[in-house]
Amino acid sequence: MNLVDRAKFRVILADDDFITAKYLKMFLEREAIEVDCTTNGLELVSKLKQQAYDLVITDWLMPELDGLGAANVIRNQIGMTDIPIILYSTRLVGSAENEQIRNLNISHVLRKPLDAPRMLRLIKSTLSAVNV
């Protein structure tokens, strides 16, 4: 799938690690994906209320409101049930968290360190499903 030939996709990325956020933003912008960055879940939720996005990509462990908490607000308080969410983290996912992930309809959960080619394939397949 060539994303360059399609309408520009808008992605919101939440990560409190500046280096990871900068790397992912640069990586995605090379694929003609527009990226807005935030540093925590509260900023993520605030931007989602103001702007339309095609995809949410968020770190799990962040200050103020973590990625899973932000996903809960996105799904259950804002009511954005269709926007895909990709969550990534260094932490291991337990059975209770797996249930939360299923209940919140998280599209993908990735472990750090991130495998850039794999992540790009997931993002492209997710965005192509959005564009159908």
Q: What do these coordinates show?
A:
- With 132 residues, the chain is α/β, with parallel strands linked by helices.
- Helices cover 43% and strands 20% of the residues.
- It is built from five helices and five strands; from the N terminus they run βαβαβαβαβα.
- A five-stranded parallel β-sheet has the order 2-1-3-4-5, sandwiched between helices.
- Strand 1 (9-14), helix 1 (18-29) and strand 2 (33-38) form a beta-alpha-beta unit.
- The radius of gyration is 14 Å and the shape is globular.
- The model has no long low-confidence stretch (mean pLDDT 88).
Secondary structure layout:
Layout: E1 9-14, H1 18-29, E2 33-38, H2 41-50, E3 55-59, H3 67-77, E4 85-89, H4 95-103, E5 108-111, H5 116-130
Parallel strand pairs: 1-2, 1-3, 3-4, 4-5
Helix pairs in contact: 2-3
